[in-house]
Every structure is written in C-alpha cells, then in structure tokens.
Specification:
Blueprint lengths: L1 H12 L2 H14 L7 H31 L4 H9 L3 H12 L6 H13 L4 H13 L2 H10 L2 H24 L8 H4 L14 H35 L3 H8 L6 H9 L6 H13 L4 H14 L1 H8 L4 H25 L5
Length: 336
C-alpha cells in the first residue's frame, strides 16, 4: 500500500511523467543537455509552468464547486452563530476555501464588518484567506512533501486565529473607517436555487478568472525560480540566506513585503531557494510575506481601516511570520 501511495504521489502530484516528457523534449527536441544551465533552466520553466497550471485548474475547479455552497451571506451567518475563540477558528477555516489573494479578501472583510461581526473574526478570515488555501496545500505537497504542506497549513491557521484574537482583545473597532459600517448587507442566500449545472458553470468561470489573474505571476515566479536554480551560484545564496545565517528570515520578510504575487507564483521561487540550501523556514517566510503582507494589499486595506489598526495588523502578522520562519528552520529535519 505504501508503494502505491508513493507512486500516486509521484505521478499525480509531482507529475514525474511530465518531468520525463520535458526531459525528452529538451534533449531530443531542443538538442540540449537537461543538466546544463540552459537546458536545466528550460526544463525547470516548462515543467513547472505546465504542472502548476494543470494542478491549479483542477484544484480551483474542485474548490470553487465546494465554495458555491458558501456564498458570502451564508458564510457571514455561519460566523455570526459563533462567539469567542470558536468563531476565530471557524473564520480561519472558512478562509481556506476562498482561493483568492489578500486584495480579493478585503471586500469580504468589508461585508463581514458591516454585518456586525467582531473584528477578531474578520481579521482571522483576512489573514487566513490569502495565506492558506486548499490549492496551496496540494501544490506545496507536489513541490516538497505532505508533512511540510500540512505543517504550513497548521501554522498558518494558528497565526490567523491568534492574530485575529489579539486584534479583537485590543478593542480597535473605532479604527475602522466609518463607511465600512454603513455598507449595505444583503441577507439573500440563493444557495437552494443553484443547480448542479450552475455550480459547474461557476467553478469553470472561477478557473478562467483566477488563471487569468495569476498566470503572469506564475510565469514570473517560475522564471525567477529557474534563474535561481540554474544560474545563481549556491555559494552566493548560502552566504546571503543560508541556514546558518540568523538574519535570513528577516531578509526574506523584508524582500517579500514589497512584492505582489499569488502564492502560486511564489512556490517555484521557494522551491528553487530550498534546493540551493536556503532554510525551509526562510523560504516559507518569503511566501507568507508576499501573500499576506504585500504592499498593494496593505494600500487597499488602508482604505478601510485607520493607520493605528493597520500598523497593529502588520506588526502582528510580521512578528508571527518571523517566528514561524525561525521555528521551521530549527525543526526542518522533522519534515524531510
């Protein structure tokens, strides 16, 4: 049974068959050595792009079909029935079935806040939604392994719950812009009127929309990953971000924040960094900083919250991400 599971993981998630086909293409079609810098870069780029888009399309379709049962109004009602830490946990878990970037999560944040949900709940959702989703779990498993993927999800959910809880304890409701509380909220939930055909259509539309939104970031991310993997000397990367460098997690956070990319675009970069000897925690810190604290999403969030609340949010998430990075670096041997 174990051998069967390993085979399925290699062929379905890691797509070893695709890697073999791309190797043949590079060697026989392009006349290049797949182990050379040029041939290796082309192999890395073609293989990762095709693999990510295949997995992304299948996963987004499946997740969106499930998500069709949880429109914003229904999600809001589910959250409204919970209180305290339980509500934060539910909010973080619901965030995992919304495969969107942080900018796309902000309209839902406005809807939840205007509906009277506590800030603790809305911020747990806001942290979880871009940081942890079901698609990223599968993609992480396809690039690294299941233990790393599940550990990433668990720690991301903990950060979302604790971050939201702490913001709630600080009583910063007056730091939300006034118009947010005045936004109209619909109580209509047409879940029962949606047929299976409509759900399939909705899921297909989500695949097209999300792929259209992230394709450029995926290409850029894979391109950077190919360059790191095949052209940047390992000694240089180790000197800057090596596992023995205490500042590597801080540098990864600082570099990641100004960027704007989906987690699907950052995964190939993280993969290449780890293969070059960068600590697992450092690579995951970079991913988290890009997805949860990107500069464009912070600019958008500033439109709906006042500066003190924005600073608190950034501070809590930044400290959490840094601690997670150091924790993963110290315990990486448990996941490989």
């Amino acid at each position: 049974m174990r051998e069967v599971l390993i085979w399925l993981n290699d062929q379905l998630l890691r797509m070893q068959w695709l890697s073999d086909l791309v190797t043949l293409l590079v060697r026989d079609g392009f006349g290049l050595d797949p182990t050379s810098q040029v041939g290796g870069s082309i192999h890395f780029f073609i293989y990762d792009v095709i693999k990510i888009f295949i997995l992304l399309s299948v996963l987004i379709f499946s997740i969106s079909y499930v998500q069709s049962y949880f429109p914003p109004e229904r999600t809001r009602r589910i959250l409204g029935q919970r209180e305290g830490l339980g509500a934060n946990v539910i909010a973080a878990l619901l965030g995992t079935i919304t495969p969107f970037c942080s900018c796309s999560s902000i309209p839902l944040f406005i809807g939840f806040t205007s509906a009277g949900l506590p800030l603790a709940v809305t911020f747990s959702f806001l942290i979880s939604s871009p940081l942890v989703d079901l698609a990223s779990v599968i993609l992480l498993a396809s690039i690294f392994n299941w233990s790393i993927a599940l550990a990433y999800v668990a720690i991301g959910l903990v950060l979302a719950v604790l971050g939201g809880t702490l913001i709630g304890r600080l009583k910063l409701e007056d730091q939300v812009e006034g118009f947010v509380y005045q936004s109209p909220v619909s109580d209509h939930d047409n879940d029962g009127a949606i047929s299976r055909r409509e759900r399939v259509s909705y899921a297909a539309e989500q695949v097209i929309e999300i792929v259209h939104r992230v394709w450029l970031y995926v290409l850029i991310g894979v391109g950077i990953g190919a360059a790191i993997h095949n052209w940047i000397p390992e000694t240089f990367i180790s000197a800057l971000l090596g596992q023995d460098k205490w500042w590597s997690v801080l540098v990864a956070t600082i570099v990641g924040v100004p960027m704007y990319a989906d987690i699907f675009g950052t995964l190939p970069i993280a993969e290449a960094l780890v293969q070059k000897g960068v600590g697992l925690g450092t690579a995951l810190t970079f991913m988290m900083a890009v997805t949860a604290l990107s500069l464009p999403s912070m600019i958008m969030l500033k439109r709906v919250v006042k500066l003190p609340l924005l600073i608190v949010f950034i501070g809590i998430v930044t400290v959490g991400i840094i601690l997670i990075g150091y924790t993963f670096n110290a315990t990486a041997h448990l996941f490989v």
